[in-house]
Automatic annotation (TrEMBL):
Low complexity bias (residue ranges): 47-56
This protein's encoding gene: HPSE
Protein name (record): Heparanase
InterPro entries: GH (IPR017853), Glyco_hydro_79 (IPR005199)
Keywords, alphabetical: Cell adhesion, Disulfide bond, Glycoprotein, Hydrolase, Secreted, Signal
Organism: Bos indicus x Bos taurus
Amino acid sequence: MLQGARSGVPSAPPPELPGPPGRLALGHVRTLRTGVGDFVSGRDTATVGESVPGSGSEPGGGRGGRGEGRRETGRTAERTPRPRREEVHKVSALSARGRLQGRPGEPGMLACRKPGMLACRKPGLRPPLLLLLPLLGPLGPCSPDTPAAAAPADDAAELEFFTERPLHLVSPAFLSFTIDANLATDPRFFTFLGSSKLRTLARGLAPAYLRFGGNKGDFLIFDPKKEPAFEERSYWLSQSNQDICKSGSIPSDVEEKLRLEWPFQEQVLLREQYQKKFTNSTYSKHSVDMLYTFASCSGLNLIFGVNALLRTTDMHWDSSNAQLLLDYCSSKNYNISWELGNEPNSFQRKAGIFINGRQLGEDFIEFRKLLGKSAFKNAKLYGPDIGQPRRNTVKMLKSYYVNGRIATKEDFLNPDILDTFISSVQKTLRIVEKIRPLKKVWLGETSSAFGGGAPFLSNTFAAGFMWLDKLGLSARMGIEVVMRQVLFGAGNYHLVDGNFEPLPDYWLSLLFKKLVGNKVLMASVKGPDRSKLRVYLHCTNTKHPRYKEGDLTLYALNLHNVTKHLELPHHLFNKQVDKYLIKPSGPDGLLSKSVQLNDQILKMVDEQTLPALTEKPLHPGSSLGMPPFSYGFFVIRNAKIAACI
């Protein structure tokens, strides 16, 4: 759900952001207005489901930051005519030793021996970053020790940080993900969750919530007497270690067979999704065991979506099947949170059933009573979620930026499309603030394009712009948890492909997890670059062994077709910065399914081992270079920010 403005830390006034919807889940809400009537859901948190197009305009304007105090040009050399404005060009005046060269009789001044050059600075002052030179003659260094010219001023972007106090606190599981319930259409494919490689990848993103739900969830029926599929039975028989998390992977012949059949099953699932014609399927206790074991062994908290379309003749929710599921999970001492239904506002379209708000509220009350009588009396209950916002409703909002069938590469790089995320989130936050002001809001299901994602786009490097920007905006606006659709499954928007190979958004998510902490700060770009040069700021994740309290993590996206140089605020100018720059690898460019981190291709070492995510330390005082169409993270070490301590 989308989080309300309160998160346990005094909140600075949120920045005004321009800003379609994401999917919201309202969990633990006592009495909310939804559609026609009231509904009661759980106790303490509201969740928001899926998200819409993301946005990312930064507030702020003008020039300033660290550049203001370092741009003095000093005294002009004698007989040097004042250059016309259009003749001025900025170049670096720093020597290779990081200081200006003095001239005889005036230490600390730069000797410009060519006519028309400008003297630089008086002794005792910090060396200036830039000099102004008239474009009247050959451009060159003032002395043999002066390096080549820096990037033109148009490629420099000054940053402004607001670090007095956090804007929000997000959950340690802020970046979470889903497995679509359609995987249970044929329970044989649940066996994929026994893959040690897939578990290694999931474990890398912990702590996180794993939401099992989606449209198919309202067409799944639990049958505790159903026999396991051959593939499921083969997996369980092959596990000899009593500690299931240390047991072996899927038998190789079973895994190979399933992988060969998966592309055909994937087409079945996508066809059902496109046509919105769902049929009931049953799943066994063995499937529940597989799902729970996967979550538990990967360090994930499972949220299980229960079928809400089972109805009595008078249209009340038939809770008998949910009771069977609760009884079984209680007998196994499973620790699970719950969700009732998926997009109840779409029930009429996909099942010919209309449920008003009052009835839905009664259904949630009934489910809460069931939980209260079981081992799950303290479990959290989330929902309802809806696909699009309606007037006077509170919801779990699902949203995607574009239609996967018609999306283009340009859509993924369009700041206007990214900005569409803001308005839908703001609308939801206003509703939650009005009705249940202390409730948290989650984004319960989100990705780049609906309809299973955009082929050859949603699983490439280009999709990372939407994903990273949505994470940044969500945190800045106070969303407590964002759930990515999906870790693995049918379609094109997954983090891991059908061979369990991590895709670009997986590596981006892994870096986010390792580097970004849960205290959200504010950063902005000064000047006109705010739309295509998008920046976000958090306290650094201090669980990373290299970093400590007080450090800052800046993450940024460059949507320009030229390199941009980010300039830190003056008080952080001389701090050590570690760069983690992500670029596509291979000839496919933005459409590559492989990425490199600081020029090193990212790939798993083996099925049990993720690669080291190695930083590139920058020289203190360096600008933060971002090549065209790139994104990355910069950790500012020893920043000693009080809000991060």
